[in-house]
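Action item from last meeting closed. Structure (356 res):
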């Protein structure tokens, strides 16, 4: 397909009459943007995109441009984002989420501003926008300025219950997204604030169908954005053929003494007792097969570690929502977690740092 951009497309307050003019501007603005746009406007039918590497080794996959355009149109329809929508791109262009913000703007004729992908993207921003996309860390650091974004989608990680509570008194409409590089950005949406009915679940976009495989993992079909059926490693509970609850990663499930534990569910509760970054994991154990442990990131040296651990265990045991099987057997402090470029914790690599 021949790729053109919408006549209303605007980038950093600049309009362009030709592809050559846009590429010239991009070459002077950002090497990553220029590289992507050069590929986007080429005669190739596909774009090479790197996966994030949060659950394994990063890999390069090929995405059809036609499907990327279809995904952009679906997002615009779902969120009601017509031409001249003002949007802010504050994610790395190297990954699918950043690329798709550009594709949406080019396809739909948005007025797009691009800023450096930092953990505090709204610092120093004086304009207001109709739409933007962030990762949870950026959202957490932008609460005071979030009124500048009318509609915000959040992906690349789980939004904690504590962060959701902070969103309830914010006027902006904030949505969690479910998707991956293989599905070309999101295929399901969950509203995080101004929700009138609880619990709320992920709802798939139009023309997307879902079911579970024998592992209870989500399977996705959406012929307009990917040809093959996508078998995920995400354990879910199906609420209906259009709604689901995400429980965690199949690869992260811990089998401790025959009891299957979902780390992500346990972490939601443990977030109530620590503000540091953390995660739980299973390590080899002779009796249990796998033993549940808690790893906490501490950027400063822990003084009186034995006392701190004792206090933490006391707080954990006071959480009525955790069963005895969901209480970590050990606590480890690490000065720094391994993470991807978008800030996702790399659990396996981090565990290897302490010899597991």
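Sequence:
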């Amino acid at each position: 397909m021949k790729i053109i951009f919408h006549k209303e497309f605007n980038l950093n307050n600049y309009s362009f009459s030709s592809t050559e003019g846009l590429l010239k501007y991009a070459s002077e603005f950002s090497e990553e943007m220029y590289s992507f746009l050069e590929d986007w406007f080429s005669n190739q039918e596909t774009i090479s995109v790197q996966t994030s590497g949060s659950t394994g080794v990063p890999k390069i996959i090929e995405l059809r441009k036609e499907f990327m355009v279809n995904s952009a149109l679906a997002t615009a329809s779902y969120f009601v984002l017509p031409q001249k929508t003002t949007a802010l791109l504050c994610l790395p262009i190297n990954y699918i989420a950043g690329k798709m913000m550009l594709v949406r703007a080019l396809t739909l004729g948005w007025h797009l501003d691009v800023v450096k992908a930092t953990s505090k993207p709204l610092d120093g921003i004086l304009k207001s926008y109709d739409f933007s996309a962030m990762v949870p860390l950026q959202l957490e650091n932008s609460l005071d300025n979030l009124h500048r974004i009318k509609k915000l989608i959040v992906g690349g990680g789980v939004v904690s219950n504590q962060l959701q509570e902070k969103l309830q008194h914010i006027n902006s409409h904030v949505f969690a997204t479910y998707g991956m590089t293989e599905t070309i950005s999101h295929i399901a949406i969950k509203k995080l604030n101004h929700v009138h009915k609880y619990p709320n679940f992920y709802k798939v976009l139009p023309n997307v169908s879902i079911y579970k495989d024998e592992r209870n993992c989500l399977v996705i079909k959406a012929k307009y954005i990917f040809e093959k059926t996508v078998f995920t490693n995400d354990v879910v509970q199906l609420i209906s053929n259009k709604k689901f609850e995400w429980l965690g990663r199949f690869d992260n499930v811990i089998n401790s003494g025959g009891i299957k534990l979902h780390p992500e569910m346990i972490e939601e509760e443990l977030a109530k007792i620590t503000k540091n970054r953390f995660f739980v994991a299973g390590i080899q154990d002779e009796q249990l097969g796998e033993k549940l442990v808690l790893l906490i990131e501490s950027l400063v040296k822990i003084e009186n570690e034995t006392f701190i651990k004792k206090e933490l265990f006391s707080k954990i045991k006071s959480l009525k929502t955790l069963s005895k099987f969901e209480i970590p057997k050990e606590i480890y402090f690490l000065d720094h977690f391994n993470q991807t470029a978008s800030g996702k914790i790399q659990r396996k690599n981090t565990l290897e740092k302490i010899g597991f």
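Note appended to the action item: Residues 259 and 325 are 8 Å apart (CA to CA).
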